Amino acid sequence: MFFYGQILGIHGHFYKHSEPVTMMWTLIITILSMSGSGMGWTYQYSNKTMNWTEAREWCWTNNYTDMVAIQNNQENDYLVSILLDRTKAPYYWIGIRKINGSWTWIGTNGTWAPNESWAPNEPNDKLNDEFCVEIYVNKANKDNHGKWNDDKCSKEKHPVCYKVVTCGEPIPPHHGRIMNCSGPHGKTSFNSSCTFRCLEGFNLSGSPEVRCNSSGLWDAKEPICAALECKPFFVPDGVVNCSGANLTVNTTCQLSCVAGILLASPEVSCTVNGVWTEVWTEVWADDIWRRVRVLSGWRPVCASNNISISTSHYGLYIEPSYDFCLATPWVSQGK
């Protein structure tokens, strides 16, 4: 895949290290691919020389991801601009070597190695044993400056390492949890993402996923989990006493009438779906309940004790009194 890049910034500082010969620059580069993804790195090199295998181990020992993996010409040029200029060999090992006949970046498994990146007449593979690559940093030699050369892996040169930018550990929301964190370079490294989920009875507010960007920051704040609430309701000519000030999940409400009969169950609860439990009970005179439901619009109501019973050729016909107060709507469950 072809990559192009833009340098975001550089911190021009020298940092102390356990080895006095070590010098490090911290910089952030964003490399955007055709698909829009990116990479964020920091770089380090050492003034100490070592063979290619030792150079890779040195990167690991110093908590860097691997030897530098160059993605395009712009990154190559920038890397050369921050490395110490050297008037002669040894130069710098980079993280590309020949594997099964192909030049491969060992940190990324990339194969970017265009002809223009190599010094004149390189790679030449003298004696068929030049399987590692150095980068020339010598401003006095314009033909070779910033170019690559294949060389014996046993030779000693300066290592150049990279480290993936990382973000801090995301914080799981209260009443929720982090479902998964994953990425190409680690769980909280650049381009990794974390997903969130709320516990039952809570709604996720905010982005359900955050991604670590090239600045070492998550691209969004961690979401919050807000308790689901059932809609408030009223019983005309009645009383509603609830167990909490907010009608959140598991809140229970006691229903009663100031006078008359409560045509509903005496208690309702707010379910994990944010709706009230069924308010109707089928324990007395099914036909009465059916008719009250139709007349009331499925609302809990208080009714008088006046109930008329008549006969028809079907048998007894029970008709409830129409002495209902239905001024205030029952709003739970959209009814």
Give the structure's gist in a few sentences.
This protein is mainly beta and 335 residues long.
Describe it.
The structure is a single chain. With 335 residues, this protein is mostly beta strands. The protein folds into three domains: 3-164, Roll (Mannose-Binding Protein A, Chain A), CATH 3.10.100; 176-227, Complement Module, domain 1 (Ribbon), CATH 2.10.70; 238-334, no CATH class. It is 9% helix and 33% strand. The chain has helices spanning 52-61, 73-82, 286-296, and strands at residues 3-11, 22-33, 41-46, 66-67, 92-99, 102-105, 132-135, 148-151, 158-164, 176-182, 193-198, 202-205, 209-211, 224-227, 238-242, 252-257, 261-263, 267-269, 301-303, 307-312, 315-320. Strands 1, 2, 3, 4, 5, 6, 7, 8 and 9 form a nine-stranded mixed beta sheet that branches. The radius of gyration is 36 Å and the shape is rod-shaped. The two termini are 57 Å apart. 29% of the residues are buried.
